[in-house]
Structures are given as C-alpha cells and as structure tokens.
C-alpha cells in the first residue's frame, strides 16, 4: 500500500522538484532527479522517470530537455518570470504590512521562480522595515472586504486617524461604519476601499490600513445602476487624491516637456492638441481637490488651468491661501 501511495504522489513531487530546482540555466539529469525523489521517500527508475516526464508534458506542463552525456530536464514556463516577481515584491515592500508579513509574502513570491532566481530576489527580503506605520491585521481586512464584494454584502468596520502622539482617534466616536463596498484600489503605497452610500450620490474612499475589526455583514448591498459597470481605470485617471471631489472636465495648457507627465497621469488615450505660444492643450475629467491644485502649483507655471473659469478661480484662491500662510 505504501508503494501505491508513493506512486500516486510521485508526479506532483517530481514537478515540484523541477519547479524549485531547475530553470533554463540549471537542469537536473535523470540520476539527480531520482536522488531528489529519494530524499522524499519516493523510489524511481530511469525508464519509469522518463515516462513520468512524458506524461507531464502530455498534460501541458512543458518540461524541456537536452542531451549531453545524460538527458537533462528543466522547467521554464512559469506563471511569473523573475522581473514580474521583483515588481510584485516591491509592491509588498511598499505596503503597510508588518516587516514579518512582508518577508513571508516575498519569500512565497520568490518560490514561484525556483531557487536560483529566488537568490537574485533576496535583496527584497532584507530591510523590509520602513518608517511607515504597519497594520498587522490588514491582510484579514482585505480578505473580509474581498468576500463582501464577491458575495455582494455590506461591510462594516471601525475607522481611525492618528493624533500628534500617534494615538488612534476613532471616527464617529468609535461607532461602526456600515457601507456598500465597490472595489479595492492600490494607489501611492496605500490600499483603499471605494464605497458608496445607500441614498446619496458619489463615492467615499477609506484607507484599509486605517480600518479595524472589518466584518462582512449579512445585509445585501444596495444595487445602483451607475456602479454596475464601474470603470476603475477611468476612475484612476480622474483622481489626484484618493479622497476625491466633484468631477469636472478641465482644459489644461502646458509646455512640451510635460507631455509625458500628461500621458502618465491621464492615460495614453487622451487627445493632446497644439495651443498658443508653443504650448499644448488637453481636456480631461478630473476630481477637483487640493491635491490637483498642488500638482498644478508644483509644475511652477508649466501647467495652466484654462477652463472652466470657476476651477481657475478656485486655484487662484488656493494659491492665495498658501501665500497668506507665509
């Protein structure tokens, strides 16, 4: 019976060995594979091992081989390559997770590219401590929110800000927020939940790392037609701050060197046209907020608000308030 159990699990163990210990620059021959299987208590012969690899290939696992003195086998077709894993590791490093959680997640990511390429990612595991305040419960909060969105249920939570001594100050005097979850968004090193109210228009955004005691309520969300086909990418191009504002179509005029910035900020689908004095123009939907005005001011005159006039006047008032503060 033990032999039967070994044979049933052998294909899984064999493929795991190939994924962990091989890549296009590091292959294992038949004897080495038999040795690795033996370390896990599984016996194999060269002839049977060759058939096992053929069986895996016939089911789409794509194990490549070449012959020198012996046949060598390796795996290259992975879900992620090392560059993609490095990018994901950088996202994890920038998150509000604790340093222990970051290291654990990054190690799991590295395992997806095999041990040799994982070594080149080891720098991502070092110095995961950052000056950011971490929230060790954020993974559980994300899991609860994800379930609520998928099950179309309301979500409730406590929400807090920090005072000058870094103490938590709970909003609504510690009462729970109950709302309709729409989507989670990663933006500028923070993870946000976009929600909408039952009766009023618009959306509200919360930082997930500032949530506590997140719970999936046994209450169906209030369905709204305007959110049935919510376009998150369009939303990203509109918001300068994840805390939003009223959306206006704004015409901007800017110098040539800002063209790349415009594409980065609003997407390559925008239409840029020539303006006056060797400048360029674009019309884009923007949620008007202090963050947007700060971006315009930070361009040091390279970006101008042409219309609507009301937004231009708001910007002038914004700059005047800054001047008066000094």
Report on this structure.
There is one protein chain. By secondary structure, the protein is of the alpha+beta class. It has 4 domains: 2-75, Winged helix-like DNA-binding domain superfamily/Winged helix DNA-binding domain (Arc Repressor Mutant, subunit A), CATH 1.10.10.10; 82-124; 138-229, Roll (SH3 type barrels); 233-325, Alpha-Beta Plaits. The protein has helices at residues 2-21, 30-39, 46-58, 82-93, 99-110, 115-120, 138-151, 232-238, 259-266, 290-298, 309-325, and strands at 28-29, 63-67, 71-75, 153-162, 168-170, 177-187, 190-196, 204-207, 211-220, 247-254, 273-274, 280-287, 303-307. The strands form 3 sheets. Strands 4, 5, 6, 7, 8 and 9 form a 6-stranded antiparallel sheet that branches. A 4-stranded antiparallel sheet has the order 11-12-10-13, covered by helices on one side. A hairpin with a 5-residue loop joins strand 4 and strand 5. The longest helix is centred in the N-terminal third of the chain and has 20 residues, at 2-21. It is elongated and about 80 Å long. Residues 123-131 have low confidence and may be disordered.
């Amino acid at each position: 019976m033990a032999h039967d159990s070994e044979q049933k699990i052998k294909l899984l163990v064999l493929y795991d060995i190939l994924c962990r210990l091989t890549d296009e620059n590091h292959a294992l021959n038949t004897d080495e594979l038999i040795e690795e299987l033996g370390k896990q208590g599984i016996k194999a012969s060269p002839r049977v091992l060759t058939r096992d690899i053929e069986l895996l290939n016939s089911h789409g696992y794509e194990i490549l081989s070449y012959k020198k003195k012996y046949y060598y086998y390796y795996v290259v077709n992975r879900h992620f390559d090392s560059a993609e894993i490095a990018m994901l590791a950088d996202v994890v490093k920038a998150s509000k997770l604790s340093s222990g959680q970051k290291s654990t997640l990054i190690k799991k990511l590295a395992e997806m590219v095999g041990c040799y390429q994982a070594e080149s990612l080891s720098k991502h595991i070092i110095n995961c401590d950052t000056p950011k305040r971490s929230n060790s419960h954020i993974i559980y909060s994300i899991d609860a929110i994800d379930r609520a969105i998928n099950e179309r249920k309301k979500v409730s939570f406590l929400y807090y800000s920090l005072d000058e001594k870094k103490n938590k100050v709970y909003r609504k005097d510690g009462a729970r927020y109950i709302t309709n979850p729409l989507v989670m968004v990663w933006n500028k090193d923070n993870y946000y939940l976009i929600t909408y109210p039952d009766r009023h228009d618009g959306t509200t955004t919360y930082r997930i790392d500032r949530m506590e005691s997140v719970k999936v309520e046994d209450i169906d969300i209030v369905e709204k037609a305007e959110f049935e086909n919510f376009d998150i990418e369009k939303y990203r191009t509109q918001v300068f701050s994840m805390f939003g504002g009223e959306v206006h179509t704004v015409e901007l005029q800017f110098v040539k060197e800002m063209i790349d910035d415009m594409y980065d900020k609003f997407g390559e689908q925008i239409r840029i046209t020539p303006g006056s004095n060797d400048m360029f123009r674009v019309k884009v939907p923007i949620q008007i907020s202090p963050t947007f005005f700060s971006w315009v001011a930070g361009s040091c005159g390279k970006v101008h608000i042409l219309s609507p006039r009301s937004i231009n006047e708001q910007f002038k008032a914004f700059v005047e308030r800054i001047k008066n503060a000094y």
